[in-house]
């Protein structure tokens, strides 16, 4: 840390003898520390909070640079635990200033009389777990050491300023300021030549105000950031009316929302909207002056899909061009290197317009990097700029800095937290770390924290921790520690969540990329506030899943395991389906079930556009069959894939897997022809199988007429359709064609005769149930037919079949027969690629619009089809990192054969 910053901090103070013993020690007296003290005291624990600053406020104590404000609307960025407090404090503005927020925190501290438990001007210098005493011992730089049963770090996510990493800071003879450690006395910049380095939130908030005072302002920008106008003023009347009308509901909606602000979840995706509709939504959001609104309310794919995001980023760049007069400056201010929202966007007042002032100059460090700071100013590799004052708005060692870098923490068996986190933070729920008993972090890495309204996330963590301490006390437990299995599982879940959003595509403080040498990875939990809350509740509901609890005179309790094994979006879909309380499909009768599925599908968003969709009929084994052809927008002729839909040989039709066919057509660049084969019970076995072969023959023979590439075709199918695709390959081999170049079997039925363990493991709860599969099989084929290879391809001859991609899902009754088929094909010498999709269920890959973690699998499917057709793989920007290989580990049974 530079000397200037050190000087601004509390000076070293000598410790005094004696140890203060309390039940719980808290570090920090910001939003989290104050609420912790209040809750702990009410719960009857003795407490002390250690706070380096001389007053309460945390981040709002230190960040007092000009223009510092919150950027979540203040009525949402408030405590919600006490409705009386809500009524007792009125915010004066939509986005309150730092002094007002600091006054609010002082008001809260006084109202709940927590100051008496805070030792101000006291920094923790080391924390050691004493195994024998089962207590933490904290040494401090001022006053007594503290011995506590529980140690809770309420240190904030952005409280450890990052050195600017520029040579020569000490040589500068002028004034130096850090936004994160702004002096308490008045800073006079009027008439001075000022430099601001950094254009994150702190820079963007302070630059317009510094420009008003300074004689000359030079802004040194390394990476342009997206900023939206705050349109500050009184809190919007509609939001205030909602809050005052029913504050309990308003607050509860915030707690279960994605970002901690009571806004609904947007469901429409970008391609469902016209250009005009998108622009209208965008202008409304721009006028609203609300970051969370812009980030969540425009279209559902803006945060998860590069194309959906680019549409929004283009509109934002257009705004920058309209606000900044000089086109070169406007271009330099326009971000192109990261999707909107992947780096923390900012909320500003007159930021872009400030560059129209004659006294403001932007230096683009991408074109002329800073070489050093000199006695008189800043030297880039093109010029020297003399200044009187330098403001470093260079950010923080975020999320881990305040926990790890401030003082050594030594846990069980002498484990050092710095060592344990050497390759990045490892936590369970962002709350606890294995090896560090009785240590909790409020909004630690691995929790929604900085990706949410911090006020809501802080309250959730504080409530969860204090409730656990109370429950432990009642049960006689004195230590609690996260297990390694639970922590590893959480890391997997974090990684799964991270593949869902675009945060992985930007170098930011979210990923640790802003601090040289810091291990990189998305640190906050990207799965959303509401889902996270439900997971924390589930941990409690399952007997403190993933925690080991011990106490004198009570039996140790450890219900070990992973709290989330499903992919995050699969979990949401299954929860949603459960809440809909849908009838059991098998209880509806065949026609009732078909009507139900048709109605259900009608409510789905349309799939993505393709070049052309053509409906027609083709001759089946016993009469005409409908088909739907999907043609890519690229110039043909394209290879042709014959596709068989899912639905247990009973339900669905040539249109029912429309989103999947469109997606695969786009990804593979191939024609998909989805065949409406005959259904049971009207047409029982082997009608569907025979139709499969007949349709494939006709399509192969008419490929050129259909606009496709003549020659071998490919087959694909999902579920019962996967069964038909597999059977078609066997029949084509045995009955003289057509030639099939490859088969894609997605969760196929391969054995109607044998029930494998996955039937029992996944009997209920994962959409396709055991009871439903039994019903399908009963309607389709009699027990005597079930060993016929046309019903159960696993029972057929497998040599000489085309190469296959078999996809199986972990939470699917059909999993084990798919695995068995992949293994049997391999044993028979067929080239096989097998994707075992971790955390996925039967419909993961066909629910294109809602299960985004299915993208990686579909990319692999498209790659395989292209390979079978002799085409090179195709790649879309932003797809990297979505391959299941990074998170879902495809298991290649026979990669060499590919
Ligand atoms: O820090 P930042 P911040 N040479 O890391 C640049 C919250 N917050 O203090 O992007 C040159 O965002 C760096 O460049 P680059 C909010 O969550 C909230 O502004 O690394 N430049 C970047 O431009 C926010 O996101 C509010 O290429 C250097 C800037 O400095 C978070 O705090 C207000 C450099 C740092 O931006 C952090 O914001 C303020 C170097 N050596 C902050 N090193 C609210 O409104 C760094 N930079 C609630």
Q: Outline of this structure?
A:
With 898 residues, the protein is of the alpha/beta class. 33% of the residues lie in helices and 17% in strands. The strands form 6 sheets. Strands 1, 2, 3, 4, 5, 6, 17 and 18 form an 8-stranded mixed sheet that branches. It has an 8-stranded mixed sheet with strand order 22-23-25-24-26-27-28-29, sandwiched between helices. Strands 7-16-8-9-12 form a 5-stranded parallel sheet, covered by helices on one side.
What does this structure look like?
The chain is an alpha/beta fold and 898 residues long. It is 33% helix and 17% strand. The strands form 6 sheets. Strands 1, 2, 3, 4, 5, 6, 17 and 18 form an 8-stranded mixed β-sheet that branches. The protein has an 8-stranded mixed β-sheet with strand order 22-23-25-24-26-27-28-29, with helices on both faces. A hairpin with a 4-residue loop joins strand 5 and strand 6 (145-153). The longest helix is centred in the middle third of the chain and has 22 residues, at 454-475. The chain is globular and about 90 Å long. The chain starts with a helix and ends in an 11-residue tail after the last helix. Bound molecules: 3-acetylpyridine adenine dinucleotide. Residues 69-71, 158, 164-166, 179, 197-203, 205, 220, 222-223, 344, 365, 370, 393-396, 450, 509, 514 line the site of 3-acetylpyridine adenine dinucleotide.
């Amino acid at each position: 840390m530079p000397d200037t910053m050190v000087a601004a901090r509390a000076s070293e103070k000598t410790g005094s003898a004696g140890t203060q013993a309390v039940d719980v020690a808290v570090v920090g007296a910001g939003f989290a520390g104050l609420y912790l003290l209040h809750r702990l005291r009410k719960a009857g624990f003795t407490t002390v909070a250690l706070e380096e600053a001389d007053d309460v406020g945390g981040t709002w104590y230190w960040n007092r640079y000009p223009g510092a404000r919150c950027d979540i609307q203040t009525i949402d960025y408030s405590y919600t635990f006490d409705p009386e407090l809500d009524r007792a404090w009125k915010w004066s503005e939509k986005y309150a200033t730092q002094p007002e927020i600091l006054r609010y925190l002082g008001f809260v501290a006084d109202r709940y009389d927590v100051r008496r438990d805070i030792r101000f001007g006291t920094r923790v210098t080391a924390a050691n777990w004493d195994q024998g005493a089962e207590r933490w011992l904290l040494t401090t730089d001022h006053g007594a050491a503290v011995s506590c049963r529980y140690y809770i770090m309420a240190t904030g996510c952005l409280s450890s300023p990052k050195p600017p990493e520029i040579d020569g800071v000490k040589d500068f003879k002028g004034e130096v300021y850090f936004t994160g450690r702004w002096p308490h006395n008045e800073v006079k910049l009027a008439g001075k030549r000022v430099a601001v380095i950094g254009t994150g939130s702190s820079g963007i908030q302070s630059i317009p105000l510094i420009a008003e005072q300074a004689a000359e302002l030079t802004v040194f920008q390394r990476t342009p950031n997206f900023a939206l106008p705050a349109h500050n003023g009184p809190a919007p009347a509609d939001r205030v009316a909602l809050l005052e009308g029913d504050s309990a509901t308003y607050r509860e909606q915030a707690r279960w929302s994605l970002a901690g602000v009571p806004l609904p979840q947007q469901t429409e995706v970008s391609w469902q909207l016209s250009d005009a509709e998108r622009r209208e939504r965008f202008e409304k959001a721009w006028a609203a002056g609300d970051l969370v609104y812009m980030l969540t309310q425009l279209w559902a794919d803006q945060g998860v899909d590069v194309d959906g995001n680019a549409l929004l980023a283009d509109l934002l760049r257009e705004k920058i061009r309209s606000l900044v007069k000089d086109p070169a400056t406007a271009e330099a201010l326009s971000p192109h290197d990261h999707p909107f929202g992947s780096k923390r966007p900012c909320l500003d007042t007159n930021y872009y317009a400030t560059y129209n002032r004659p006294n403001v100059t932007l230096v683009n460090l991408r074109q002329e990097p800073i070489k050093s700071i000199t006695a008189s100013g800043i030297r880039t590799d093109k010029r020297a700029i003399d200044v009187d004052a330098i403001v470093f708005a260079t950010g923080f060692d975020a999320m881990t800095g305040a926990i790890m870098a401030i003082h050594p923490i030594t846990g069980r068996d002498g484990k050092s937290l710095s060592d344990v986190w050497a390759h990045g933070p490892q936590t369970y729920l962002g709350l606890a770390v294995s090896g560090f008993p009785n240590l909790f972090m409020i909004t630690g890495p691995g929790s929604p924290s900085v990706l949410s309204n911090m006020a809501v996330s802080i309250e959730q963590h504080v409530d969860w921790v204090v409730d656990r301490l109370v429950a432990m006390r009642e049960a006689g437990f004195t230590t609690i520690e996260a297990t390694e299995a639970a922590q590893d599982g959480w890391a997997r879940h974090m990684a799964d969540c991270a593949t869902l959003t675009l945060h992985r595509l930007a170098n930011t403080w979210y990923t640790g990329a802003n601090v040289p040498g810091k291990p990189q990875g998305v640190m906050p939990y990207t799965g959303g506030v509401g889902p996270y809350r439900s997971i924390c509740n589930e941990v409690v509901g399952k007997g403190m899943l993933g925690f080991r609890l011990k106490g004198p005179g009570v039996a140790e309790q450890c219900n070990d395991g992973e709290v989330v094994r499903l992919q995050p979006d699969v979990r949401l879909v299954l929860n949603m389906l459960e809440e809909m309380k849908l009838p059991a499909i098998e209880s509806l009768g065949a026609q009732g079930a078909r009507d139900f599925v048709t109605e259900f599908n009608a409510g789905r968003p349309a799939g993505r556009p393709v070049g052309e969709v053509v409906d027609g009929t083709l001759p089946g084994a016993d009469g005409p069959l409908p088909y739907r052809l999907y043609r890519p927008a690229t110039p043909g002729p394209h290879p042709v894939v014959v596709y068989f839909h899912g639905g247990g040989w009973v339900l669905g039709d040539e249109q029912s897997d429309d989103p999947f066919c469109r997606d695969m057509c786009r990804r593979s660049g191939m024609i998909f022809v989805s065949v409406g084969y005959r259904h049971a019970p009207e047409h029982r076995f082997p009608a569907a199988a025979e139709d499969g072969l007949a349709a494939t023959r006709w399509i192969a023979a008419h490929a050129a007429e259909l606009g496709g590439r003549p020659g071998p075709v490919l087959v694909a199918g999902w579920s019962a359709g996967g069964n038909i695709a597999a059977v078609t390959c066997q029949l084509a081999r045995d009955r003289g064609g057509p030639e099939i170049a490859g088969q894609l079997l997605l969760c196929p039925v391969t054995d109607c005769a044998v029930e494998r363990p996955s039937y029992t493991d996944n009997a209920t709860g994962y959409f396709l149930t055991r009871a439903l599969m039994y019903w399908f099989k009963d309607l389709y084929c009699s027990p005597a037919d079930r060993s016929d290879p046309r019903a159960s391809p696993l029972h057929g001859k497998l040599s000489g079949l085309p190469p296959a991609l078999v996809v199986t899902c972990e939470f699917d009754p059909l999993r084990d027969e798919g695995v068995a088929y992949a293994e049997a094909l391999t044993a028979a010498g067929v080239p096989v690629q097998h994707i075992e999709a971790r955390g996925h269920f039967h419909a993961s890959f066909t629910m294109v619009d809602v299960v985004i973690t299915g993208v990686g699998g579909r990319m692999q499917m498209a790659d395989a089809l292209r390979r079978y057709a002799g085409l090179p793989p195709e790649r879309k920007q932003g797809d990297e990192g979505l391959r299941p290989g990074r998170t879902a580990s495809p298991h290649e049974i026979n990669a060499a054969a590919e």
